[in-house]
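new request in #modeling-help
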Amino acid sequence: MYERTVVGRPLEEPELVARAQRGDAAAYEELVRMHQAIAFRTAYLVTASAEDAEEVAADAFLKAFRALGRFRRERPFRPWLLTIVANEARNRRRAGIRRQALALRATTESRPGDAAPSPEAAALDAERRRQLLEALARLPDDQRLVVECRFFLELDEAETAAVLGVRRGTAKSRLSRALAKLREEAPDDA
Amino acid sequence: MRELEHELRALRSSVEFPATPDIASAVASRLSDTSPASPWPRRVALVAAVLAVAAAAGLAIPQARSAILRVFGVGSVRIHYVDRLPAVRPDAPVALGPTISEDDAPFPLLRSDLVGTPDEVHASAGVVTLLYGTPTDVRLLVTQIASPALGPNTVKKIVGTTTNARIVTVDGSPEPALWIEEDPHVLALPNAPERLAANTLVWLRDGITLRLEGATTLEQALRIASSFH
């Protein structure tokens, strides 16, 4: 277990990265725990398979650990990690294993423990949700992915660009095109 | 009129993702077999520092639209470390140039008793490649370049941050060799489209730069490399 300088105070990410770079496996496990959800979901959006996404995320974290000595700590960790996850996911997709189109679904009922829906979410009726998700699934993969990264994973521009493997400007223009296409595919007065 | 962006944000809370598995525990159980990469060895860092100046002076690769982190070389091969690999068609062909007879090579080729006579010999722009297998089913590629004749920038290898590259020693060669493994890197040969390349060993012998692609392990690559003379 990594040491804590102040009892009970969880270590911050830069300190965890520094410790992991020195070979502290417990610190790295903590880093993985912090980022496993976003890594898994990113991999899922690229591979369209939960099983592949789990393997991809685990492999990516191992590769990141091996490459950690070359990571520059003054840079943010998450975009660097997501670049590795997305590369790994794309390689898996290119390998053609269980390739299928991704069609996200929306929940129709609240689940136990769910927070009350936001007023915006409550205003979006089930039919409109279905319409939007179907339109999204019809977009070309690169356009679908940019929308999902920005709105469903809430990645910022730099992180989205890292996942797409393109420059920020390219990610931005791709998002514009994707939204324009979505407006055509799912007009709100339909 | 409803704003599409607002709708997409509203949709986020109801989009179903599969439950996130316990990846941290799975990774932790495999961490004992590995360790974080050390920063580049001192020798590489020194060479990189010298060559970074050369990169700034114009050796940068125009196709690589990403930051070049480090550059160093082995013979006629320049290794460019970048933060993002350039886009390369995953099915880009292995373009080696026309076939020639060994006697027509532009310089005396190094030969190996271990892997024997190649199935084909190709040459393009002074770069000679021994092909074992067929062009569509390559088992082993050994590229040879007469280093002083063609200069230091004949072959570019573009290596991303998730590819492992380390200095190794080939028996019988006094110069450091480079082993690139794991994630594919991008290979740029003269007169050929950039393509992805797998595990590769680059070394120098008798003024010739050799590049071996197709060995699955470092041990196998070193054994083959030391057999070329």
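bot summary: Chain B touches chain A through 47 residues (CB under 8 Å).
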